[in-house]
């Protein structure tokens, strides 16, 4: 070891460490100092080390950075990956020009940062940061530092938080991951993870083997890459959130931690076998856990089903053609082609495929300022356009991808998929048979015997007679008001007045929902599934298809139409119409593209998309919707099932109160009702309603208070867990309030980007709303005023249901509460989702 190396030793007994052959340096390397084999630089948080190592069974020596204190050495960066040292004589030096060099024992430069400080730089040092990034910098003050070079700009096989994968369009430098050649050899392997790096094209990731694409991860949908596998318990709670930056100068992908980095470490690596893996280390454990691996299945192999093919692992064989296309098996080809050729006629239309991985964007163009309707028009007006889609799934996000030519690498997902609109001929009928079936029908018609023809004619006559009778019945019904139709179904016991809403035919709704395709299903409630649909006029709708067998379902069908048909407010969901035909009973609503509030609040990867100003506006919007229901409408409406799942978000993230199946109306002189059948959702039901069946506008106020505290905290009231006590979310919020620490309730994902006064106001109002006694809770106008900062707010009293629901039955103040069938709601008759 040279004298300059000895300057790095943090020990006084130099000779003792020389005998051992190893030494630890400080966290910096100054000019004219060096590090020899056996020395290390340690990051400030002691998570990372920089030094010399030999991977696996190799005897070669490399300069690298690795995680400290893991069960097996986990290297995240290698300097001389393609130029190993063959002995222990290597030295790392930093010169006064800001260049870091690895020099062999014979004085040969094995590796260099090729960096230099411009102008006059002082205090040049090389430092290993707490992120695992090795930097060369000048200056001592944190706010006056200049990075001359950093290892994160030259990644190997591992991606860490703080790195960027992408391209600088000005310098032309591209940053991507390259696998090791083997576990024993860190030199550049065959596999790379890199972006589709053409300026103006839409971003997506590829795993390549040489120049050949193995797996396509993408395109990016504004939240994540749509080519990732389905959400599993291991991947549902990621330690970081990803984001994209695209501008005229650069395009890159990066991540930000959403977990406590002192307890959870993560990395993304491309393996020598061509897999992309995301791994987590939960301290103090020293074992890495694999949370995601790509590719997962055959459908992740790039273009496995060819142009216009669709891959689906739930079918056998897994390759098929998109609807409107068929296999051409002539000659040596086995590709999908249009069943009916396009002629660019005015009648050509687009078929919507739901839950799809969007095709490769190599032959697509992107327009960021186009709505979906504008996107359709642009595609229809260009005869070369074959498909279009909005790739942006962020709240209120717009954008237009238009494809030209074959659609490559399409697959079906049950989650994380998107809508794809594919151009089909004007004469194509979605219910038509293939050419094979048409030929078979011709052959059968020619060979039919006279007796068979007579039999068929008889059957046709019978069906025709029955159809004519049914058609006349339906025609008579269509001329009646909804009140009369309901009375027909209920034997004259309908309670509705005349409500003028549009009557949709079953055939029209079936067309809009692709015949109630499972891929169009948005969710399922206690009274049936909800589907997304597109009317012939192009309007998006949500269809609530009520149970065919449940009499209670029809009661709530009537109740919902009764309550909502006459309600008109920007914070209430709008009923467009209904369908009632045979055993089918459906309600048709305007479609809310961002679905329900709970899908954001309680999803760790999506809650980041709701900042505090949006959350506070949502609280205000719900309150204004309740004010309309409780006071401004000519009748008083009590919702009775206000919860995060029943708050829908439109394209502007405005809240819309939905699901009025349990709502009840009062006249002006009525204030409360009583029922023997308690229905609603656990965690939101007020104590007087749960215990005695009494409900009023104050029942909704209680539910609103719970909802406010959930929006502030990002936590569910039901099932809330805290390490210091057994209280639910209401009890936890009360504890913090009494200690003057209400700001501690704020969702960790907001990371300080909130208004303290607004948060304190919201928590205060939430606690006022969940008080035990009905008379203590504010009325709706007072709640709206308090949220707006008007009036002096009284101090809240201890909330109801202070403890978890498992302990409610043991309290003396409440009777034993009946559980429902599905343990989600309280009901003495049946359950409700």
Structure description:
With 833 residues, this protein is an alpha+beta fold. The protein has five domains: 1-154, Orthogonal Prism (Agglutinin, subunit A); 168-173 and 184-296, no CATH class; 303-434, no CATH class; 480-590, Phosphorylase Kinase, domain 1 (2-Layer Sandwich); 598-810, Transferase(Phosphotransferase) domain 1 (Transferase(Phosphotransferase), domain 1). The chain is built from 15 helices and 47 strands. The chain has an eight-stranded mixed β-sheet, with helices on one face. Strands 36-40-41-39-38-37 form a six-stranded mixed β-sheet, with helices on both faces. A hairpin with an 8-residue loop joins β5 and β6 (62-67). α10 runs antiparallel to α12 and α10 (612-632) runs antiparallel to α15 (780-787). The radius of gyration is 33 Å and the shape is flat. Residues 1-26, 230-236, 431-440, 471-498 and 804-833 have low confidence and may be disordered.
Chain-wise SSE layout:
Layout (H helix, E strand, L loop, with lengths): L2 H4 L7 H7 L2 E2 L3 E3 L3 E3 L2 E4 L5 E6 L8 E6 L6 E5 L12 E4 L5 E4 L5 E4 L12 E4 L5 E5 L7 E5 L7 E2 L5 E4 L5 E2 L1 E6 L2 E11 L9 E5 L2 E6 L22 E7 L3 E8 L6 E7 L5 E7 L6 E6 L14 E3 L7 E3 L3 E4 L6 E4 L10 E9 L6 E4 L4 H9 L4 E5 L10 E5 L5 E3 L5 E7 L10 H13 L2 H29 L3 H9 L11 E2 L2 H7 L8 E5 L2 E7 L5 E6 L5 H14 L10 E7 L2 E7 L7 H4 L10 H21 L3 E3 L8 E3 L5 E3 L6 E3 L5 E3 L12 H6 L1 E3 H17 L15 H10 L17 H14 L10 H8 L46
Parallel strand pairs: 1-4, 26-34, 36-40
Antiparallel strand pairs: 2-11, 3-8, 4-5, 5-6, 6-7, 8-9, 9-10, 11-12, 12-13, 14-23, 15-16, 15-22, 17-18, 18-19, 19-20, 21-22, 23-24, 24-25, 26-27, 28-29, 30-34, 30-35, 31-33, 32-33, 32-35, 37-38, 38-39, 39-41, 40-41, 42-45, 43-44, 46-47
């Amino acid at each position: 070891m040279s004298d300059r190396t000895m300057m790095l030793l943090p020990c006084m007994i130099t000779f003792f460490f020389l005998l051992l052959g190893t030494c630890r340096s400080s966290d910096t390397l100054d000019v004219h100092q060096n590090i020899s084999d056996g020395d290390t630089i340690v990051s400030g948080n002691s998570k990372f080390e920089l030094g010399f190592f030999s991977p696996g069974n190799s005897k070669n020596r490399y300069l690298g950075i690795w995680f400290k204190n893991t069960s097996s050495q986990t290297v995240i960066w290698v300097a001389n990956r393609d130029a190993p040292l063959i002995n222990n004589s290597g030295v790392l030096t930093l010169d006064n020009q800001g260049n870091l060099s690895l020099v062999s024992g014979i004085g040969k430069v094995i590796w260099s940062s090729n960096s230099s400080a411009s102008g006059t730089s002082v205090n040049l040092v090389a430092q290993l940061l707490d992120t695992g990034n090795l930097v060369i910098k000048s200056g001592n003050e944190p706010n006056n530092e200049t990075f001359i070079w950093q290892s994160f700009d030259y990644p190997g096989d591992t991606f860490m938080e703080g790195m960027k994968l992408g391209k600088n369009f000005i310098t032309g430098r591209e940053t991507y991951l390259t696998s090791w050649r083997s576990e024993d050899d860190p030199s550049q392997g065959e596999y790379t993870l890199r972006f589709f790096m053409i300026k103006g094209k839409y971003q997506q990731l590829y795993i390549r083997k040489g120049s050949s694409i193995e797996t396509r991860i993408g395109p990016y949908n504004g939240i994540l890459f749509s080519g990732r596998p389905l959400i599993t318990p291991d991947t549902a709670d990621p330690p970081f959130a990803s984001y994209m930056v695209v501008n005229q100068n650069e395009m890159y992908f990066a991540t930000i931690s959403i977990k406590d980095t002192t307890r959870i470490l993560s990395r993304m690596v491309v393996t020598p076998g061509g897999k992309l893996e995301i791994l987590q280390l939960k301290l103090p454990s020293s074992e890495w856990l694999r949370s995601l691996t790509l590719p997962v299945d055959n459908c992740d192999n790039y273009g496995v089903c060819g142009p216009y093919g669709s891959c689906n692992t739930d079918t056998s064989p897994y390759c098929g053609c998109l609807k409107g296309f068929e296999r051409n098996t002539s000659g040596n080809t086995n590709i999908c082609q249009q069943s009916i050729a396009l002629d660019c006629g005015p009648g050509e239309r687009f078929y919507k495929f739901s839950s799809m991985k969007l095709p490769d964007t190599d032959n697509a163009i992107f327009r960021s300022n186009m709505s979906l309707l504008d996107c359709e028009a642009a595609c229809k007006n260009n005869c070369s356009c074959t498909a279009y889609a909005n790739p942006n799934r962020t709240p209120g996000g717009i954008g237009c991808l238009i494809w030209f030519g074959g659609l490559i690498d399409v697959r079906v997902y049950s989650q994380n998929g998107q809508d794809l609109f594919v151009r089909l001929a004007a004469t194509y009928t979605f219910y038509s048979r293939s050419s094979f079936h048409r030929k078979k029908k011709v052959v059968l018609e020619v060979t039919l015997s006279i007796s068979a023809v007579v039999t068929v004619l008889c059957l046709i006559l019978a069906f025709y007679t029955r159809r004519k009778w049914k058609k006349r019945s339906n025609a008579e019904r269509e001329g009646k008001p909804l009140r009369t139709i309901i009375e027909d179904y209920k034997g004259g016991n309908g309670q509705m007045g005349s409500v003028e809403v549009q009557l949709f035919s079953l055939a029209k709704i079936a067309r809009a929902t692709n015949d109630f395709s499972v891929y169009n299903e948005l969710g399922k409630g206690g009274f049936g599934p909800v589907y997304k649909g597109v009317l012939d006029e192009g309007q998006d709708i949500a269809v609530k298809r009520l149970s065919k067998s449940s009499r209670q379902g029809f009661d709530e069908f009537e109740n919902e139409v009764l309550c909502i048909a006459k309600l008109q407010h920007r914070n209430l969901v709008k009923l467009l119409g209904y369908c009632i035909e045979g055993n089918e009973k459906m309600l048709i609503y305007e479609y809310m593209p961002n679905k329900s509030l709970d899908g954001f609040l309680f999803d760790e990867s999506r809650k980041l998309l709701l900042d505090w100003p949006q959350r506070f506006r949502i609280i205000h919007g719900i309150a204004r919707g309740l004010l309309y229901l409780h006071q401004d409408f000519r009748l008083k409406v009590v919702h009775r099932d206000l919860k995060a799942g029943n708050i829908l978000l439109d394209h502007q993230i405005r809240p819309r109160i939905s699901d009025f199946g349990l709502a009840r109306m009062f006249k002006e002189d009525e204030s409360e009702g009583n029922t023997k059948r308690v229905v609603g959702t656990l965690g939101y039901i007020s104590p007087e309603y749960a215990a005695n069946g009494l409900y009023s506008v104050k029942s909704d106020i209680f539910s609103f208070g719970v909802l406010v505290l959930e929006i502030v905290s990002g936590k569910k009231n039901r099932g809330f867990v805290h390490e210091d006590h057994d209280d639910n979310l209401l009890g936890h919020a009360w504890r913090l309030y009494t200690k003057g620490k209400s700001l501690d309730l704020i969702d960790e994902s907001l990371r300080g980007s909130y208004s303290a006064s607004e948060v304190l106001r919201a928590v205060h109002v939430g606690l006022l709303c969940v008080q035990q006694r009905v008379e203590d809770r504010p009325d709706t106008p007072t709640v709206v005023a308090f949220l707006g900062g008007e009036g002096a707010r009284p101090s809240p009293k201890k909330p109801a249901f202070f403890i978890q629901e498992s302990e409610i039955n043991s309290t003396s103040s409440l009777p034993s509460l009946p559980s429902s069938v599905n343990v989600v709601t309280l009901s003495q008759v049946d359950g409700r989702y």
